[in-house]
């Protein structure tokens, strides 16, 4: 019987794994034959998120030149580098364009087809356009993958879960809000991928409470304005009359920072410097384990500060006191944040040029406005200031911090535990919306279609309505018959609607305190609650504690997902080759 590998999830992560199997097979798996079964109800390559059947108004949040599915020499992996075109090279479009997601889906389908074509002739790929329901089988024996609508399971020597973003059952708060909405005939849209949400119940002219100010909100904003016939004329929004009035707030109370709109020039900060493989190994070797805030965050702060000040001193020396070499030596010698702060105050005269991560993370912390109208004007100014800064190379240390964030994320993946707080912080600073989309926010505000609630937005229920308030504007509140939770569901294994994951969890697969599936950071094998890696089950993606910034990445930035794909592919091929050789003997 030919060896068999089942990959559950045929989106970009599954495609990336096949690409790495094809790249590594000549070295590790030649001439033994293999059946690869791809299980996904959506088309291979694009999967659910990048499918063709969605609005062309749904854009990528990265420039076309910053999107690749191919490895380069910056990826720290054992397997061979197999280069390929970025999205802009493949589509022959301007590299600075924010392409729509349907075009990205076409690129991903092409990458998938190229990866399949590169497999050895005796490797066959079968696509099953169904959902996987559960995985069974003994630790040391063949696995059984049960599919929706299929009476008998697929038999697999190995199973890799590459599921992507998952739907989730509501938590206690969401369940209570949904029940209240049903009782009082209200509209409650739970966390979801915005392109899948039914927005038809959000009526023209009526107030809608929106909790969440990130990328899901931007999608919602676009679909309810341009998607309903409105248009932007320069910095003015011309309503169609079909828009609801969106009252938006969140924990921070501000939108994600705009994507940076200029190119890098000159010397790059030499990263990693203070948080690299040696520091990761030291943390992993600690007998009592480590705490993120106590042990990891100080290293992250120092690393991001190094990236920032390296760029400031080397590209904008007129805004500093002294030489970079002197500052770098003293900076390296500091062991506490207070020491670094004193050093920075002496060396960087203008506070605007200093990196303050706390202020970046919570810009409205402790800020209060006397009136709702005053806050509207202030937040429009905040967004316009962010757009100006993010498109002006005078502030190029911001781009250096972006590179630092990518480097740090790669090390955290090696550490084995990228929790929701870090992922949210990274996304807020480094994975925000395109500048043109953010520029629409002040225009929609001036048109009266979009209103800002503030930070730490709370939602309560009273008198048959939803009510929102925020300490940012004391005394202000707004009531509405509709509430939208503008964010993806939390990737919690125990509450996943995916029965496959829930059953794995019930059978003993380990989860983090945040609810992510625990995997071996070396190769992605699923860990049980005793910390043992399953010999025949792997998992890759945002629902694991090995989550990465994305299944694809910016060229020449190390690509943590690519490194993971390579490690998993090589582990799988070695295992399957061993089976084949024993069978031949």
What are the salient characteristics of this protein?
single chain, 585 residues, FAD/NAD(P)-binding domain, 3 domains, globular, L-asp_N-monooxygenase_NS-form, FAD/NAD-bd_sf, HpyO/CreE_NAD-binding
Describe the structure.
The structure is a single chain. Helices cover 37% and strands 15% of the residues. The protein is of the alpha/beta class and 585 residues long. It has three domains: 4-168 and 491-584, FAD/NAD(P)-binding domain, CATH 3.50.50; 179-256 and 433-485, FAD/NAD(P)-binding domain (3-Layer(bba) Sandwich); 277-430, no CATH class. The strands form five sheets. It has a six-stranded mixed β-sheet, with helices on one face. The protein has a five-stranded parallel β-sheet with strand order 8-17-9-12-13. It has a three-stranded antiparallel β-sheet with strand order 4-5-6. Strand 10 and strand 11 (236-238) form a beta hairpin. Helix 1 crosses helix 16, helix 7 (292-315) runs antiparallel to helix 12 (397-415) and helix 11 runs antiparallel to helix 14. The longest helix is centred in the C-terminal third of the chain and has 25 residues, at 560-584. The protein is globular and about 80 Å long. Residues 530-560 are annotated as: Disordered.
């Amino acid at each position: 019987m030919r060896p068999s590998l089942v990959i559950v999830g045929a989106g970009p992560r599954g495609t990336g794994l096949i690409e790495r199997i094809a790249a590594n097979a000549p070295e590790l798996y030649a001439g033994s034959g293999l059946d690869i079964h791809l299980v996904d109800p959506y088309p291979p390559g694009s999967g659910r998120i990048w499918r063709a059947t969605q609005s062309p108004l749904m854009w990528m949040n990265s420039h076309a030149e910053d999107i690749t599915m191919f490895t380069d020499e910056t990826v720290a992996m054992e397997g061979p580098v197999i280069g390929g075109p970025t999205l802009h090279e493949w589509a022959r479009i301007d590299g600075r364009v924010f392409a729509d997601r349907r075009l990205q889906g076409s690129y991903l389908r092409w990458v998938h087809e190229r990866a399949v074509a590169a497999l050895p002739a005796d490797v066959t790929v079968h696509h099953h356009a169904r959902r996987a329901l559960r995985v069974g089988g003994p630790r040391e024996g063949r696995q059984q993958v049960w599919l929706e609508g299929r009476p008998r399971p697929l038999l697999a020597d190995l199973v890799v879960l590459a599921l992507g973003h998952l739907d989730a059952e509501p938590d206690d708060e969401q369940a209570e809000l949904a029940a209240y909405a049903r009782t009082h005939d209200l509209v409650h849209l739970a966390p979801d991928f915005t392109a899948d949400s039914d927005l038809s119940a959000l009526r023209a002219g009526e107030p809608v409470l929106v909790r969440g100010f990130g990328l899901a909100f931007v999608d919602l904003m676009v679909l309810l304005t341009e998607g309903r016939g409105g248009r932007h004329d320069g910095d003015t929004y011309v309503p169609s009359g079909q828009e609801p009035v969106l009252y938006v707030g969140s924990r921070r109370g501000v939108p994600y920072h705009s994507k940076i709109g200029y190119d890098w020039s000159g010397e790059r900060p030499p990263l990693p410097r203070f948080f690299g493989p040696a520091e990761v190994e030291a943390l992993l070797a600690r007998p009592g384990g480590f705490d993120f805030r106590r042990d990891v965050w100080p290293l992250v702060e120092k690393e991001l500060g190094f990236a920032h000040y390296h760029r400031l001193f080397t590209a904008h020396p007129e805004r500093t006191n002294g030489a970079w070499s002197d500052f770098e030596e003293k900076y390296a010698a500091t062991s506490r944040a207070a020491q670094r702060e004193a050093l920075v105050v002496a060396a960087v005269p203008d506070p605007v040029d200093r990196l303050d991560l706390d202020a970046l993370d919570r810009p409205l912390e402790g800020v209060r406005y006397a009136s709702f109208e005053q806050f509207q004007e202030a937040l429009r100014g905040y967004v316009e200031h962010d757009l100006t800064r993010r498109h002006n190379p005078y502030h190029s240390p911001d781009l250096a911090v972006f590179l630092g964030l990518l480097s740090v994320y790669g090390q955290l993946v090696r550490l084995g535990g990228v929790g929701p707080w870090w992922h949210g912080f990274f996304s807020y600073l480094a994975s925000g919306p395109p500048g043109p989309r953010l520029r629409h926010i002040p225009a929609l505000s001036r048109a009266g279609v979009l209103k800002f609630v503030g930070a730490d937005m709370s939602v309560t229920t009273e008198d048959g309505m939803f009510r929102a308030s925020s300490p940012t504007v004391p005394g202000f509140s707004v009531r509405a018959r509709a509430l939208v939770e503008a964010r993806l569901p939390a990737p919690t294994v125990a509450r996943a609607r995916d029965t496959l994951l829930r059953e794995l969890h019930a059978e003993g697969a380990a989860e983090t305190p945040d609810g992510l599936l625990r995997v071996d950071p070396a190769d992605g094998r699923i860990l049980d609650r005793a910390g043992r890696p399953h010999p025949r089950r792997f998992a890759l993606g945002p629902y694991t504690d090995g989550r990465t910034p994305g299944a694809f990445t910016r060229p020449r930035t190390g690509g943590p997902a690519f490194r993971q794909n390579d490690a998993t592919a090589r582990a799988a091929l070695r295992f399957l080759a061993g089976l084949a050789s024993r069978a031949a003997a």
